[in-house]
What we know:
The complex is a heterodimer of chains A (261) and B (289). Chain A has 261 residues and is α/β, with parallel strands linked by helices. Helices cover 35% and strands 26% of the residues of chain A.
Amino acid sequence: MVGQELQSPATEAMVEVRDLTIRYGTEAVLRNVSLEVREHEIFGIIGPAGSGKTSFLRVLNRMDQMTTGMSWDGDVTFAGRDIRKVRNLYGLRSRVGVVFPLPVGLPLTVYNNVALSPRLRGIRNRQQLDEIVERCLRRAALWDEVKDRLDSLGSLLSGGQQQRLTIARALSQEPDLLLLDEFSIAVDPVTTMRIEDVLKELKKEITIVLVTNLVQQARRLADRTAFFLTGDCIEVRPTEEMFEAPDRDQRTREYVEGRFG
Amino acid sequence: MFESTSLNERNRKKQSLVKIFFLMMTVLLILPVMIILGVLIYKGGPVLSFEFLFEMPTKNGAAGGILPALVGTVWLVTVALIASVPLGVAAALYLSEYAPDNWFTRAINLAIINLAGVPSIVHALFGVGAFVLFFEFGTSILAASLTLAVMTLPVVIVATRESLQAVPQSFREACWNMGATRWQTIRRVVLPNSVSGILTGVILEVSRTAGETAPIMFTGAAAILPFLPESVYDQTMAMSLHLFVVSTQVPNMPEGIPYGVALVLIGMVLTMNAVSIGFRTWLRGRKKW
């Protein structure tokens, strides 16, 4: 795999994946993927629908546990620990924030949506909660729109607002790793840009895995990018190379240039 | 381009015929209800009075009031609810939120369905054997209520499970992904959004409990007992059994009295339902995704 020689020793691996194969029943949706996600980077994953991108994310926070029929082989470490051996999955998941393509506004108030995770961690102090809620909503570019109706239901917000609420909720976990699965599908372009700016800021603190259908979004945001195609990881390399390098895979070039997919 | 073709015409005609058919079926459905209520009010209405509701029966129910039966039914329903709602909701929570899909769970589900199909007279005999004799509660409110509770348990479990499963799975996953435990997810997201459905189950249970006669006949209800029960270990009169007694067991019964008893029984059930429905509507107004 091309990306591996470029690994700089200065940055540590946040997530290390070796020979990951994911199956639903007996059908493999991802085969023998090895890659690493480094601390404080935005790691992009691009590829057409059905290439195993979302399944990959599901393994990272052990969502396979909630998915009937899903199983995986290989080694995955998160912050140096084998995630298959982690017994406190609640602890693991609370350090990994997830945003799905379709927004899930929990049927709680806007405030409680964002305060839920801090409360699960045991934070009761109202002032502390207020601060967290405001900070996370600001980062998700939602604060100005909802600051006067924090007590209305999160599930009544518009689709795009709910998606940003979901992002705010993921941030309220204060995660070390943020998994974004096509987060901008329900968000308008202007707001998408604002969130993208926030993500660039955030990577100083956390590590982000960004699955996206928008090749240009990966180009704008990702430090390194992986290209998945029908269950195979074709290549992993610094994002610019994905779009420029002459030695890239034929299939990668055709995909990023929009010739199939 | 918008001229209607003969195919359009035919479809439209078919559509209005179907609609009329469905409407007629609906009307047919509410007709018996209207007739029952009408007859009861017409024949039983004149019997109703303050004395009828709040006095002891005399002459085996042919005169006086129905107070002990009224109070008895409230006792029976309340104690049955106290026994079956926590049990039923807990069982439904297990089945819906925790149980893995294996033979054990399927066996439990099958048992619940079967329990729902057991005739009430069989429940009555079970109640006699288990609660009256084995646990030595004697013929008492406790024994009768527990029998009713066992009988209505499937209703509570099924209604609760359905309403739990109506909460979208994505809500649970979103919670789990934040590191919430199953219980935290249930308490903060699942339960608050299924309360109204659970209440529906309880409403159904109340109506059924108040109206059942067979399960209480041998376990705790007495035909004529002109005293108010003082504890769950007392026997009691009940509206449903009283209706049976005054309609079939007592000679020279004034014609209006059975209708009056039936009217009060239906009124009781409808009132309890109305209160629960009101509560449910209020709960629903406060949420929704």
